[in-house]
Amino acid sequence: MKYVTYICAAALLCRGIHLAEAQQKGLSTRPAEMDNTLCAESMQFTSGRTGWKLQIPGNRPLATVAYEDGLIFVGGGFGSYEFYAIDEVYNQLRLNDINHTNLKIRATHLGYNVGPDGKTHHCIDYIGLLKNLFGFKLVMPGDPSQTDHVVRYVLNQKGNYVIGLCRTKMPIIKTRDNRNFFDENYVFEYDTCDLVREGKDCTILTFGAMLPLAIIACEKLFAMEIPARIYNVTSPFHIDNRILHEAANTKLVVTHEDHIVTSGLGSIVAQNIAGEKLNVNLITVGINQYGASDNSDVLYEKYGLNADFSGKVISENL
User: Fold this and answer.
1) Which helix (H) or strand (E) holds 82?
2) Confidence band (pLDDT; 50, 70, 90) for 16?
3) Contact 253, 281 (CB under 8 A)
4) CA distances, 24 to each of 19, 32, 212 (Å)
5) What is the pTM of this model?
């Protein structure tokens, strides 16, 4: 038995992921009672690989498994809180990028959606940080069904991927005729945007926990005879510019995100619009300050991220 620091444990380089073998070891479970010491113990897998597993004190939400040739985050699967997996280990992610590794991270609890944990735990800069890593890909599912498709896709790809998820339970996204949008016939492809709602007056570009709020805003606008188009931007680092050209044919483009507005989706869309020399009005709705401690719906209302605010912004600017 040996003891290690948290930051080192969460920051190992990754060259291979062996999810099934890690799960067979039961490494996603956490003991009910632990002392205050971070503890790592060596272990050997059936494949012959040797490595170690990490136990975090106080029933913390993160554990890791390391191999001679890799690492996997394990916490209810292979995940970690966003600020653990991104903010606090950014340089180690940079080293993974430099070394062309094969890291897969499922990072939960992002944005104001973390809610009552407060500003120290609100990871509101995940896009801004990760987009500085040349080889990393970020995928932001829009509901639990799409998450299932995304996880299956990512675990079969080479390279470094982050799957970004929220804390609260997300509703299943439905079509206007009440079918599951991301059903068994849906096929996820990286760098594509999902056209969730049709509309000609404006375009909303959004992702993750903001998608259901955008749909609520869209339905309210539809009742006001303002048909709004919604794209689910699952791969914010690689937006198909054809989508932006289509969006520019409407009267207004709005980005809606649970992220710092100056470094997130809004900034990416603005840069791409400028690069494509498109003539369209753009409004960015997102985070402009550290958040308080409260339920996510309260924070979304307080800081202007809820459906009522985005709908008002659209109606007042058309």
Assistant:
1) helix 82-82
2) very low
3) yes
4) 9, 20, 36
5) 0.78
Neighbour-count burial for 275-295, b at 16+ CB within 10 Å, e otherwise: eeebebebbbbbbeeebeeee
CB-CB contact of 188 with 155 (8 Å): no
CB contact at 8 A, 122 and 111: yes
**What is the model's pLDDT at position 108?**
83
The residue among 171, 170, 172, 167 whose CA lies nearest residue 111 is 167
Quick count: other Cβ atoms within 10 Å of Cβ 210? 32
- Strand segments, DSSP code E, in the chain are 39-44, 50-55, 63-67, 70-74, 79-81, 104-108, 137-139, 161-164, 194-197, 202-206, 228-232, 252-260, 281-287
Query: How far does CA 162 lie from the centroid of its chain?
Result: 7
Going from N- to C-terminal start, the domains of the chain cover: 6-164, 194-316
* Fold (topology level) of 194-316: Rossmann fold (3.40.50)
Domains 6-164 and 194-316 share a fold: yes
Pair 66, 78: CB distance under 8 Å: no
Q: What is the mean pLDDT of the chain?
A: 81
Q: Which residues contact 85 (CB under 8 A, 6 or more apart)?
A: 10, 62, 73, 79, 105, 107, 162
Does the 6-164 domain belong in CATH 3.30.1380? no
